[in-house]
Amino acid sequence: MVPIKPTIARIWRGRTLPENADAYEIYNYEAGIKPLIDKALGVQTFREDTPTYSEFMTISYWESVEAMAAFTGGDPKSIHHLDRDKEFLIELPAGVQVLSIRSSHGTLRPQEGGKSGDA
């Protein structure tokens, strides 16, 4: 079976206060990322910590805009906020970025447990 190549990347960003970052990372993974893993071709999560905020970014990869729209329930740029996002996020994101993948190089290898270890 030939693997399906993603043609679309959907990028979501959100920021928390540093003292809420660890709790939000756990909550976001359980409530937001796990369901996404079952639908998207691939998912990556990122976190940047600064003295005043922690930013989270999720990139999901899709076969097509239509496949992504089926997941979002219509508009591929619409956001389904998680139940506790208002509690954790500094501000609720108004939208996501949807990009066409023009080239891709290298192979990503998933790590055990869905989270990366210390480098």
Notes on the structure:
- With 119 residues, the protein is of the alpha+beta class.
- The protein has a single domain (8-103), classed as Alpha-Beta Plaits, CATH 3.30.70.
- It has 3 helices and 4 strands; from the N terminus they run E-H-E-E-H-H-E.
- The chain has helices at 21-37, 65-72, 85-88, and strands at residues 8-16, 42-49, 54-62, 97-100.
- It has a 4-stranded antiparallel beta sheet.
- This is Antibiotic biosynthesis monooxygenase.
- It comes from Mesorhizobium sanjuanii.
Give me the secondary-structure topology.
Blueprint lengths: L7 E9 L4 H17 L4 E8 L4 E9 L2 H8 L12 H4 L8 E4 L19
Antiparallel strand pairs: 1-3, 1-4, 2-3
Gist?
The protein has a single domain, classed as Alpha-Beta Plaits, CATH 3.30.70. Helix content is 24%, strand content 25%.
Count of alpha and pi helical runs:
3
CATH topology: Alpha-Beta Plaits
Strand content: 25-35%
Overall pLDDT, averaged? 87
Helix/strand order, N-terminal first: EHEEHHE
The total beta strand count reads 4
What oligomerization state is this entry in? Answer: single chain
CATH architecture name = 2-Layer Sandwich
Enumerate the spans where pLDDT stays under 50 for 5 or more consecutive residues.
111-119
Q: What is the top-level CATH class?
A: Alpha Beta
C-alpha termini separation: 34 Å
The Cα radius of gyration reads: 15 Å
Number of domains: 1
Tell me about the largest β-sheet: 4 strands, antiparallel
- Percentage of residues assigned to helices: 10-25%
Instruction: Give the overall silhouette.
Output: globular
Strand order of the largest sheet: 2-3-1-4
